[in-house]
Design brief:
Blueprint (H helix, E strand, L loop, with lengths): L1 E7 L4 E7 L4 E9 L7 E6 L2 E6 L5 H14 L11 E8 L10 E2 L2 H9 L8 H14 L4 E6 L9 H4 L5 H7 L8 H15 L8 E6 L3 E7 L2 E5 L21 H9 L4 H10 L2 H6 L5 H9 L3 H25 L4 E5 H6 L1 H8 L11 H6 L5 E2 L8 E4 L4 H14 L2
Bound molecules: adenosine monophosphate (AMP).
Length: 399
């Protein structure tokens, strides 16, 4: 059976086609500039990649273009649309109701719509993608996989803010967390690698990409995570500031007369690695400058790693004991110096990195702690699309 995984953004549609249960990614395609000038499609299938302009004034047309391109791509990627038995949709916010992936029903659509206030940039285009796929592939089961669902198991002590309780009761203001699909995928894989049953596995998973978040996993369930009501909280990220004194919002407004919308933009798009370095949100550039001795790049790197280290320590306290710390995503998978600096000084807590194994582990699964380290350290490349395909396939087989 083929499963199509769709990530629908405001002006883009990304599709990956899987053969299941073999977990084989057959083709990937991206339609960009939907509803804008000169939309274009790029395709990777059967060992070839190509790109061309396409018609995509809305998401339905974009999906038609994507499916047409997959059919055209030859080989055995996709011979007819009937081969697609199910479609898995990445949905950012499932609010308080969704604690797992779900077959799309009117009720689930209502949850996605109602949660749009919490993710106004993401949930509406996610829903548009679901509607387009339901229309174009009416025989296929539609499944929603939520970025927040894995964190639904957090206890109130972790998700409530120290704010008037009415704000939670009336407006659902609380920590939700994101990157759940990635944290769950790498946590499950880490448990497999460690040979520990997932429901007895305690882990600290660190998704360090352009967006960054940490997650404390107890007995296979998320019990705390660093992103909050929005993806701005927690670790220092590519362009987002992570944890700051919330009074800064008031001070930046009052003292510097920056409008609220501009402050929001500053914290989300002009902070993090970008803001600290003044140059780039890309860790590769920061690393290169730091190696050349640039003090600002060095400070940027130190702030980034210090914050990761602080969360490892905090989550060890949350868990009491952990089987492993797991690094994933662009930086976590590919940047040994960040992993080294993040684990520095944690030997007395049971984290002993092996320098050589760490240096050698780039872009692949690896155990990078010393033999006998009380807490293992792992690199596990994330694969959110595959996780969506697995959940979608599972629900398509459910009685
Ligand atoms: P992601 O959001 O998971 O795609 O991660 C993207 C980020 O990973 C980029 O912005 C880079 O900062 C970082 N990255 C990718 N490759 C490397 C590398 N070889 N060394 C350091 N950072 C990397």
């Amino acid at each position: 059976m083929k499963v199509l995984v769709i990530n629908s953004g405001s002006s883009s549609l990304k599709c990956t086609l899987f053969r299941m249960p073999e977990r084989e990614a057959l083709a990937h395609c991206v339609v960009e500039r939907i509803g804008e000038d000169e939309p274009a499609i790029s395709v990777e299938a059967n060992g070839a990649t190509w790109a061309r302009p396409c018609t995509a004034s809305n998401h339905e047309q974009a999906l038609d273009a994507a499916l047409g391109a997959l059919l055209e791509s030859g080989g055995d990627a996709l011979r007819s649309l009937e081969e697609i038995g199910a479609v898995g949709h990445r949905v950012v916010h499932g609010g308080e109701r969704m604690s797992g992936s779900a077959v799309v029903t009117q009720e689930v659509e209502a949850v996605i719509r109602d949660s749009s206030v919490l993710a106004p940039l993401h949930n509406p285009p996610n829903l548009v993608g679901i509607r387009a796929a339901s229309h174009t592939l009416p025989a296929a089961l539609q499944v929603a996989v939520f970025d927040t669902a894995f964190h639904r198991s957090m206890p109130p002590a972790a998700y409530l803010y120290g704010l008037p309780y009415e704000l939670y009761e009336q407006r659902r203001i609380r920590k939700y967390g994101f990157h759940g699909t990635s944290h769950e995928y790498v946590a499950e894989r880490a448990a497999e690698l460690l040979g520990v049953p997932f429901d007895r596995c305690n882990l600290i998973t660190l998704h360090l990409g352009n967006g960054c978040s940490a997650c404390a996993v107890r007995d296979g369930r998320s019990v705390d995570t660093s992103m909050g009501m929005t993806p701005l909280e927690g670790l220092v990220m590519g362009t987002r500031c992570g944890d700051i004194d919330p009074a800064l919002f008031f001070l930046l407004g009052n003292e510097l007369e920056i409008a609220p919308g501009d402050i929001y933009d500053l914290l989300n798009r002009r902070s993090g690695l970008q803001g600290l370095s003044g140059k780039s949100n890309d860790m590769r550039e920061i690393m290169a400058d730091a190696e050349r001795g640039d003090p600002r790049a060095r400070a940027t790197l130190e702030v980034f790693c210090y914050r990761v280290r602080k969360y490892i320590g905090a989550y060890l306290a949350v868990l009491g004991a952990a089987h492993a710390v797991v690094f994933t995503a662009g930086i976590g998978e590919n940047c040994p110096p960040v992993r080294r600096m993040a684990c520095e000084g944690l030997e007395s807590l049971g984290i002993r990195l092996d320098e050589d194994k760490n240096e050698a582990a780039v872009g692949r699964e690896a155990l990078i702690s010393e033999d006998g380290s009380p807490i293992a350290v792992l690199v596990v490349p994330t694969d959110e699309e595959l996780k969506i395909a697995v959940d979608t396939y599972r629900l398509s087989r459910a009685p």
